[in-house]
From TrEMBL:
Organism: Parabacteroides chinchillae
Region (Disordered): 597-635
Keyword Signal: yes
Lineage: superkingdom: Bacteria
Protein's recorded name: Ig-like domain-containing protein
Coiled-coil parts of chain: none
Ranges of Basic and acidic residues composition bias in the record: 597-609
Signal peptide stretch: 1-29
UniProt KW keywords: Signal
UniProt keyword DNA repair, yes or no: no
All residue ranges annotated as the SbsA Ig-like domain in the record: 37-136
């Protein structure tokens, strides 16, 4: 009896143990790790304390409530007055540590602007716009100025550019002295310079290439304000709203604050018309073609003087200008020359010296033909005597626009090309009739030519070139070509007229595509700009105040106190529809300076700093799904 009782008890105990174990396995789940961290680090304490006066140390330690990291401190942490010797900026657990290497100036307020570089170590929540200040004297300077920096030519926000103040109001201060206070623009081109002492200042922007806090390199991008600013402040109030939930307002509070002025400084960044002249790497992409490339356009074409070879005569090459005279191609006409793998030539060309004055520079240049082109093997039945054909490209399409021009581009220089080898016929009823046209060389490409004719809506044309009528300098002949095309009909186009308000000088408007590239240009006449025969599409508009009337945007020059020409963007998209006449009105001063350019064509778009909110609902479902999926699994 006792044995049976013990045996039954053991079986019951084993059964209960098995049930408990199965239940435990069914409820296994990955730990959630607690609440999701969506808050940035919080300031706890510091040495020295914020806004401490008479501080003589050179080390600052700031403690936060959690582990932190500093993103690219050499770029994102701005210390002012500017430090000539780079400070040490690092993290130590929950601390941000800054060690200043320069000797501290007496009676000066120092600002350490961390911008948006501090974030927590795990979720990367950013402590936005955090700055810290202390003074080596008896007072802390507290004035601030703010504004926006945009590219002068295209109104792009310019991030990461230094903004500086000078209390020395002489024009030479910008080029001889470092700034007294600095800041840096954020991803929207916005800036705030903090802890300024009372006084008068000039404001500048500087893409400081050599980090000396002054404009002493001609290639540096700059901006300057024509007027002197006087930092000040006023007491103001604003309304803060407290919400019970996403739909219900709890309380509206009126909160007082200090409004620092000016807070709307507008700076337009530009680079002066400057460019050192020098030669880039020579090229020999094919055996009969030598190329010299330069960083900017040449006024004169350099001559080639043979060094290790002797051509048959002085006309051993032909010159082709390309890429706006920044590239010069030399087509070799002497076979005994271009069949050599290595050619040395002497070249004399203009080059900028150390003070940016053009001087004649003579170099010996080596051209190598490392890989000669492979000769294609003839297939059985091919005519071994068939010479290679002269390559040409003609931009004909089945449907051409009213303002299109036919371009003809050859692969290599041609000999004595005449207009008469081209036949342009117009279709009248069912017959083709020859018509007149203009045949002109492309001034930007010696291998290119244009066929021009005033097309009319709906016309049909045919262009033909007989075979073996055009010869290259290497003896190649062209193949037969024929192509038909139609000019688009009137009802396939749209028309746009823009009424311009606020223009009192010479100006022009450029229509832009979705890549911010100009597709058409028109002068402002009688208060408006007219664009006829547009392809139906979405457009944007940019206006340039063309003060000197030269039809192009001109940059500025600091030494002459010349600002770059003003540019305005139409804030709205312009929709041109087929067979429609669209009229728009644009007041160029209606939209603020930094809100004119549509975001769709802005390349330097603002970055999202705030971390996306956690999707608790979906995470809960996912967790439940995972748990239920494990319920039947063995443990």
């Amino acid at each position: 009896m006792n044995d049976k009782y013990i045996r039954n008890s053991l079986q019951l105990f084993a059964g209960l143990f098995l049930l408990v174990a199965i239940y435990s396995c069914a409820n296994m789940a990955t730990p959630t790790g607690g609440p999701y961290d969506e808050n940035p680090p919080k300031f706890i304490s510091s040495t020295p304390v914020p806004n401490q006066t008479n501080y003589k140390g050179k080390k600052v330690e700031i403690l936060f409530d959690e582990l932190i990291q500093i993103d690219k401190p050499s770029e994102n942490v701005i210390i002012t007055p500017p430090q000539m010797e780079l400070p040490i900026v690092r993290t130590a657990g929950r601390k941000a540590v800054v060690e200043l290497m320069d000797t501290l100036k007496p009676n000066t307020t120092y600002t350490i602007d961390f911008t948006n570089s501090i974030s927590d170590n795990n979720e990367k929540n950013v402590f936005e716009n955090f700055s810290f200040a202390f003074s080596t004297g008896d007072i802390i300077d507290t004035l601030e100025v703010a504004g926006t920096l945009l590219n002068a030519e295209n109104l792009e926000p310019m991030p990461g550019i230094m903004i500086g103040l000078h209390d020395n109001l002489e024009d030479s201060a910008f080029v001889k002295l470092p700034f007294v206070r600095t800041s840096r623009t954020n991803d929207k081109g916005q800036f705030t310079i903090r802890n300024i002492s009372p006084g008068k200042y000039h404001v500048f922007a500087l893409n400081d290439v050599n980090r000396d806090y002054k404009f002493d390199q001609p290639g540096e991008d700059i901006a300057f304000l024509d007027s002197v600013i006087v930092p000040t402040f006023e007491f103001a109030s604003r309304q803060d709203t407290i919400w019970k939930d996403s739909l219900t307002i709890d309380t509206i509070l009126t909160v007082g604050y200090t409004h620092f002025l000016p807070d709307n400084i507008e700076l337009r960044l530009f680079k002066e018309k400057f460019g050192r002249q020098y030669m880039l790497k020579p090229e020999r992409t094919q055996e009969n073609k030598l190329s010299l490339r330069f960083n900017s356009a040449l006024d004169t074409i350099p001559a080639l003087v043979p060094v290790n070879f002797a051509p048959a005569d002085s006309s051993w090459y032909l010159v082709q200008e390309a890429d706006g005279k920044t590239a010069i191609h030399y087509w070799l006409t002497d076979p005994l020359v271009w069949q050599q793998d290595t050619l040395f030539v002497s070249v004399t060309y203009p080059k900028s010296d150390s003070v940016n004055v053009l001087q004649a520079q003579t170099d010996t240049v080596q051209f190598l033909m490392r890989h000669r082109p492979d000769k294609k093997k003839k297939k059985k039945g091919d005519d071994a005597d068939t010479p290679p054909l002269l390559g040409l490209n003609i931009n004909l399409q089945g449907s051409m626009n009213l303002f299109d021009t036919i371009s003809v581009v050859f692969d290599e220089p041609v000999v004595d090309l005449k207009k008469e080898v081209f036949f342009l016929d117009q279709k009248v009823d069912t017959l083709w009739k020859p018509v007149e046209f203009d045949f002109v060389p492309d001034t930007t490409n010696a291998l290119g030519f244009f066929i021009n004719r005033p097309w009319k809506y709906g016309e049909e044309y045919r262009l033909e070139i007989d075979s073996a009528t055009i010869q290259s300098i290497y003896g190649k002949w062209n193949d037969f070509f024929t192509g038909e095309f139609k000019i688009k009909k009137k009802d396939e186009y749209g028309h746009l007229y823009i009424n311009i308000i606020g223009v009192d000088t010479t100006a022009y408007v450029e229509l832009l595509n979705g890549n911010d590239q100009p597709v058409r240009k028109a002068k402002v006449k009688d208060g408006g700009a007219l664009f006829m025969d547009l392809k139906p599409d979405k457009y944007y508009a940019r206006l340039v105040l063309d003060v000197n009337g030269n039809g192009k945007w001109d940059t500025g020059k600091y030494s002459d106190k010349q600002q770059p020409e003003m540019v305005f963007y139409c804030p709205k998209q312009l929709n041109v529809m087929q067979n429609w006449e669209v009229e728009e009105t644009w007041d160029i001063h209606a939209a603020p300076f930094n809100r004119q350019k549509p975001l769709d064509i802005t390349k330097n778009k603002p970055k999202e700093l705030t971390k996306k909110k956690r999707d608790y609902k979906n995470e809960g479902r996912q967790s439940s799904s995972q748990n239920s999926g494990r319920a039947g699994m063995p443990f």
